[in-house]
């Protein structure tokens, strides 16, 4: 069994293979390639708090877990929903699943019932992998609910102490002692097929899943390693959520593993968590979203000596202002690389030999010569360089369709298979992209993406809410925060009541409206849609007056 997905047309497949982008190897090769000689196998792959793992150990532990899953009857084409924090087990589990051919959705650790249920509904997993550090999995209440609602689930793996399911920690310890290495040949999914699902930032009511094949993902990793010049001396701090495309593959942990370097895990991107780790492990490179950069710049004056090993700071996920960009090198003592990417595929980098204008003012250029970019006006006609338009792209690592979403896909792609990213960009004459805005119904809250419709739907569930519209409002640190315009039948309804309501519905904390404006009516466009442009102007005016 393989997972259905929209394939690249045959002529593209042939070209990507011929050009050496798709090399027909599974993603697990990223780690197993180092296990053929003992020198590289013994190098440190991963540091997680007090624990260190060599490439050999990472491979061995994932084998143990793969054996366990194989013995439980799991096979290629099964699916899993995984939710782990930034811990070593995230990669051990991921590799194990890839080895057996189990196709995971890696949920973010700050996701709650609403998001997890949406993923579970879409992939009908046989396996759940969760952490008892997550509030939903302190006990087995939510587990029982999910088991009752989802007959496909037949096994739970738990990171930490398990009050239900099988403890990953105990399993790995017990098996390592016994070391009964009976040799089972695992079969991953074919390299041309789906390896795992990436999460879409989304703009619709239910979050969409992005099928990523071994071939396309592995190419983006190798090409990123080359551009970012990683090698076995690279020590990369993973401070953003581990499943995110940025920290996983741009070049992220997978890139570092491919190069034979070391990944150091941080629990969060705060200066307090990260600076001591940078100092202790002599970290050379890391990736941040812009709000974390602001906090690092504020904290750095007292701790600059902690950062001497840091060579490269990648910033992406949301627009970095020129003024912030300019402070990075003088204050943090490292080089800036801007990264404009998306879980759907396309990733752009500024290059290390770019002049400072490009590094401060652009979001980079695509990874691949075969990344095709179209920038179009509202009629769909391509615009000249320097003129803003909607970004469309296709290429050797950009997907061709969301999972099981024919209706949505009909609009998300043009007739030639170009994906509409929903970003408004300009191209420089040098071929670099500048992100100037967005035409998707999404709020980018400091790199965390909020699909307006998803939150609006949950607001509408409240009995006293008759209409709701979520829009972005400017924020100095986060770039954007969210504001809900709400029409209610209850004049006494309070913002806090709505936030409580959303929490009770299992909406992730970062999606709760930062502000609620109760209104008598919502402005409409001529075609009868809520006029969000006008709402954004209204809240901007309100904020200016209040200042
Ligand atoms: C990354 O991936 P996603 O899937 O969380 O979000 C993609 C969207 C883009 O379409 C764009 O709207 C926004 O995030 N974005 C940026 C940006 N990088 C991403 N907007 C302005 N400036 C940037 N530098 O966010 C992502 C994936 C891989 C690498 C880096 C970021």
UniProtKB/TrEMBL annotation:
Keywords: Ligase, Nucleotidyltransferase, Transferase. GO terms for molecular function: 2,3-dihydroxybenzoate--[aryl-carrier protein] ligase; nucleotidyltransferase activity. It is an enzyme of class 2 (transferase). Signal peptide: none annotated. It holds the Pfam family AMP-binding. InterPro entries: AMP-bd_C, AMP-bd_C_sf, AMP-binding_CS, AMP-dep_synth/lig_dom, ANL_N_sf, ATP-dep_AMP-bd_enzyme, DHB_AMP_lig. Residues 41-403 form the AMP-dependent synthetase/ligase domain. The keyword Nucleus does not apply. The keyword Acetylation does not apply. Its EC number is 2.7.7.58. GO terms for biological process: siderophore biosynthetic process. Pathway: Siderophore biosynthesis. Residues 454-529 form the AMP-binding enzyme C-terminal domain. It comes from the Bacteria. This is 2,3-dihydroxybenzoate-AMP ligase. It comes from Photobacterium frigidiphilum.
